[in-house]
Amino acid sequence: MNHILITGANGQLGNCLRDLAAEYQERYRFFYTDVEELDITDAAAIDRYVADNQIQIIINAAAYTAVDKAEDDVDMAYKLNRDAVRNLAEVSKAHDCLLVHISTDYVFSGESCHPYKEDDTPAPKSVYGASKLAGEQAVAEVGCRAIIIRTSWLYSEYGHNFVKTMLRLGDERKEVSVVCDQIGGPTYAGDLAQAIFLCLTSNLEKKGIQVYHFANEGVISWYDFAKAIMEISGKPCAVFPIFTGEYPAKAPRPAYSVFNLRKTKTELGISIPYWRDSLALIINKLLNK
After folding, report:
1. CA 6, 263, 82, 154 torsion: positive or negative?
2. pLDDT, tens digit, for every residue of 79-114?
3. Number of domain units in the chain
């Protein structure tokens, strides 16, 4: 039985990994930590935890994800998204663990007109994106066994996210305005969690670093996403399209965050759910709590 450490276990992805763990309890024993249980900026603490609990796989679901705040909080963004990742990679190499690290579409410029492949050249435009890319580079420099999964537009029934915000605004307002010129793919964290477990099955004995892209099937704008949330939930809130320039934000957002999912589907042998199907399931969960 492999021992798995999940960092950032109280976040969206961490909670979805917990939900799925029951399906894999015969194969894995899980250890859940967040900052209170394990400070991943402390390399010695990680080393002790891994040694004491005989960890063989680390899934790093922890990150600094406040995109706008990162523009001013540069040191903390890099501390969590680069330095802590390097710590995890070095401990993984020292103990021959497999590291699964979650990254983001923000490592790309968003200026492409073709879906991004895993080997396309990164060119982040924000501090958040640059710090996440630095984390990927730290893993490569250390040279541990690793899986890097880039994802986009993450949401779930947990924490703070776009879907939950739109549902709240749907109750509070008669109308909302949402950008229509940022294109990408929503990702339900539960679908990503399932893909991570499938990655483990396919990559447990592989050497080197494997990179995958994961989002739900389909390509939409944030405006389309908001419209679908209101329609599925039955909220009487009207949604109007605006352009990025009309919605000032401190950090630049990628205009185009579409992933090429071919490698993920072929190498892992999975069928990725359509974004609207996963969205409907989660909205029904949230409204029927």
Report:
1. negative
2. 999 999 999 999 999 999 999 999 999 999 999 989
3. 1
Strand order in the sheet with 57-60: 28-33, 2-7, 57-60, 98-104, 145-151, 209-214
Helix/strand/coil for 93: helix
Q: Supply the pLDDT for residue 181.
A: 96
| Residue 123 structural domain | 2-159+188-217+257-273
- Residue 95 has a pLDDT of 97
Count Cα neighbours of 137 within 13 Å in the Cβ-side half-sphere. 13
Bridge partners, residue 283, by sequence: none
The residue behind tokens 């893993």 is 139
Report the distance separating Cα 153 and Cα 67, nearest Å.
12
DSSP one-letter string for 190-220: HHHHHHHHHHHHHHTT--SEEEEEE--B--E
- Give me the mean pLDDT over the 117-139 stretch: 98
Q: Would residue 222 count as lying in a domain?
A: no
- Is position 144 within any domain? yes
Phi-psi region of 95 (alpha: psi -120 to 50; beta: other; left: phi over 0): alpha
* Residue 49, pLDDT above cutoff 80: yes
pLDDT of 205: 66
Does residue 109 form part of some domain? Answer: yes
pLDDT at 207: 79
Straight-line distance from the first to the last Cα atom of the chain, in angstroms, rounded to the nearest whole number:
34
**Which domain CATH number covers 27?**
3.40.50.720
Domain membership flag for residue 223: no
Residue 128 among the catalytic residues:
yes
In the set 49, 106, 116, 128, the catalytic residue is 128
